[in-house]
Amino acid sequence: MRAVKNLLVLYTGGTIGMLETPEGLAPAGGFEARMREHFAHMTDAPQLRWTLQELDPLLDSANMQQHNWLAMRDAIVAAVEVAGHDGVLVLHGTDSMAYSAAALSFLLLGLPVPVLLTGSMLPAGAADSDAWGNLCGALRQFEQGLEDGVQLFFHGQLLHGSRATKLRSEAFDAFVALPRHRDSERAGAIPAELGYKHPRQPVNLAVVPVFPGLQASHLQALLGSGVQGLLLECYGSGTGPSDDQALLDVLSAARQRGVMLAAISQCPEGSVVFDTYAAGNRLRGAGLVSGGGMTREAALAKMVALLGAGLDVDTAERWFALDLCGERA
């Protein structure tokens, strides 16, 4: 851990910098000037040196897409390798912040600087806003020293980037790191194709919850649309409608033609352990690989990073089963 001396603030949009428009709150530029003006009136403003870069276009994070993650990754890598920054603070909207934190965790494997995401539930300048508290708190984390890797700072909490999730839609303590037990071997050396220097491509993925009434035809329509990977949110420890042979056949056929199939639990706490129930074993037999105790955000982001690196499904499944950055810890 080391104090950061030359920070990049990457402003992606989000509530923290929004201004009122006739249609409601919307992302607005010029946030660097607002930050500097606010700090000028503080007696205990953070003292580290920073510069701000605006991502183009600025986003309401409800509009976040994979290509925006890749643009963030490119900006961060350039900031470190070209501009010499030794830390990056990403200002982000809260709707998809946990997804972006997880995505950057896998897209920046091996990056030798800390990356921190923060944002706010209310815009900077709004009455009783949490914006300046979160922003100043995040900056002080860099002053005190952070470990390399991706983390999320919100409401005084420092959370692991691939373990965080948004639990509350209105309270200031919106984010938590869901507890998990280690359920996988930690990967050794990360191959070059999974490191932060390796570019990625967007991946056509889908997430489907198992629910009473899920039909083979539902999955057939989705899997027939060209998806490269399916994340199935199963019951409990990884169970589903295992007596529906038509549904199992649809999954099996998709895996045989090269679609990656992964399973996570719908439960906020717990892991997929296929061996516990016969119903879980039948899903594994249809071609699903266990996501262990990963969050939805982490499992989805990990599939993007693996398949987006050009790995074949067998290789992607092997790396998916290993703990790459603490996502399965």
Automatic annotation (TrEMBL):
Catalytic residues (positions): 15, 15 (o-isoaspartyl threonine intermediate)
GO cellular component: cytosol
Top-rank lineage group of the source organism: Bacteria
Classification via PROSITE patterns: ASN_GLN_ASE_1, ASN_GLN_ASE_3
InterPro entries: Asp/glu_Ase-like_sf, Asparaginase/glutaminase-like, Asparaginase/glutaminase_AS1, Asparaginase_C, L-asparaginase_C, L-asparaginase_I, L-asparaginase_N, L-asparaginase_N_sf
Domain L-asparaginase N-terminal span(s) in chain numbering: 7-177
GO terms assigned for molecular function: asparaginase activity
Family: Belongs to the asparaginase 1 family.
Protein name: Asparaginase
Organism lineage string: Bacteria, Pseudomonadati, Pseudomonadota, Gammaproteobacteria, Pseudomonadales
